[in-house]
Fold these 3 entries.
Entry 1:
Amino acid sequence: MSTPMPACEALAADPARYIFKQLLSDLKEAVLYDEKHHMVTRIGGYLAALMECDVITVEQSRALRNETRTFVWGPDA
């Protein structure tokens, strides 16, 4: 699937967010639905941790989560 994820790519480009970069890569490489669902859940948890530590805002977290959901389930997710 080639859904663009500009907010996710921007966060992954930050060297300090190397874990997010790996999670995003794992999501893109996932083939099975269960794998994709698992990765979206892991990314959501990671984003919650970043938000709790004031690294990202609530709005950024929502945008990032929306991009990952759209990547997996399409624009109507």
Note: Residues 23 and 41 are 10 Å apart (CA to CA).
Entry 2:
Amino acid sequence: MEEVQQKNPEEIENDKKGLVKWVKEHKDQLALAGVSVAAVIAVILGLKNKDSITNVWLTLKDEIKKGKPLSAKWYEKADLEELKDVRDSVQKAYLNPKLSMETRGHLWDLLPVIDNAIGKREWAGKEYGFPVKSENGWHLSSD
């Protein structure tokens, strides 16, 4: 068997100092090499997962434009059908007896907010007005 040559402590210390000196002299090249390797890896992964990255980018772009679901910006930007779909799903979740009372309480608090947003969409540009038929209230004159 080969015996490993052992260096005395002075030689080890000199080697360490030499290595540190070399690293300090070449730190710019080492940094450039590290950044280059990271960039090459990112490009390779990007090319392999191009479709996934594109989907994530489009989803993120849409979320930024429209707002996070159930946020104030989302209520302003969502169309009427989307609001009604969300309201139906929240109501179905509220009626689920397997959910905790705390969760159902949060859903109950969310329903009027969604209803208010739906009402604003449905009545946009229309006058609210009062009922015009006498059967809708005693204070109206008969027809």
Note: The chain has a mean pLDDT of 81.
Entry 3:
Amino acid sequence: MKILSRSPIAKNTAIVALVVVIVFFFLYIFKYSGNITGFFRIGDVLPLSPFLNPQETFIYSEQLGYDGQQFLSIAFDPFLQHEGTIAALDHPLYRYRRIFYPFLGYLLSLGNVRLIPYTMVGINAGCIVAIASLCGLYLKEKNGTIWRSLLVLCIPGCWLVFSLSTSDLLSSFFLIASLYSYQKNKPILTTTFLALACLTRETVLVVWFAFILVSYWQKNWKQLRYLFAVLLPVFGWNLYVFIRFKNRGILGTTTNFDYPFLGIFDKIVGFFQNEFTTSTILEIYLFGILVACFISIFWSGYRQPQQSTLLVGVTFAYGLLFCLSSITILGYYLDFSRVYMDVYFLLLLSAGEGAIAIAPLAASGLASIAFLLIQS
């Protein structure tokens, strides 16, 4: 108790942990009727994992399911020894590349099938709390605005991922840990966290490239040398997956990217064509906030270039992906809010003050509440 009374970071972390516990029980009891598999949005279109009992599984009828279903299937059998596991994956070549989240769930639960779903939900819960703590440490080193770590609770992507049990929160934790390690001039830790982030979600490679460019720009030669080591485990794993599944389905991201700005144009046109419902209003609201986050980070970088070089560089990398994203990613708020969740964290960590820095994060809190109460 004495530590909590003395440390603002510990206080904020405790508050975030309490909110996460409350949200967990709200979803677990009221949304999923006490069935932990509800967190994985399992549909009835694809074959069910052979390790799941249909009678004990929370299944959404006449739905394809969501990514959490795929991660859970892999976590039950991370070495894919059961042929039924591969049959349960929509695109094995794509899904198996993102190995670290399901493997960590398997490892922490010691392979216990009953514990694995709880463990995977627990990993995401822990990531929200750990991200808030890391953000507090980062902000303390930078400009002392530690209270802003509480804004993690406002970020819609946190609750989307938490309720869907995808890998994005774990990937975000590793990214923020790498940013903090870079700031502390710890190249080995920076490289390790980036490698784990890439094994969790391979699109983080574009962030790795931003680290390369910024390290070169800042003449951080020691960090630059270590960063190339990220490619060893990432390329090694992806090569193994490609060799194993080269004849079993296509790469799942082939339609995720398109010509520059085409997906954004299609998205905006869709706003005028769709009927205005609660879901479409939330869609417009979240898309606008995401764009505002990009603008706010770049504005902060313009005002304080020396403090925000790496944050702006990583945001620029995500901005390139955003401009190239097809309507497959941008078409639904669950997808673009999850894929570009890191942009919210980057804004939280930026040095900017005032409405332009805080408003998008504060406004996103309304969307988080709407999602949890209405849409989840």
Note: The chain has a mean pLDDT of 91.
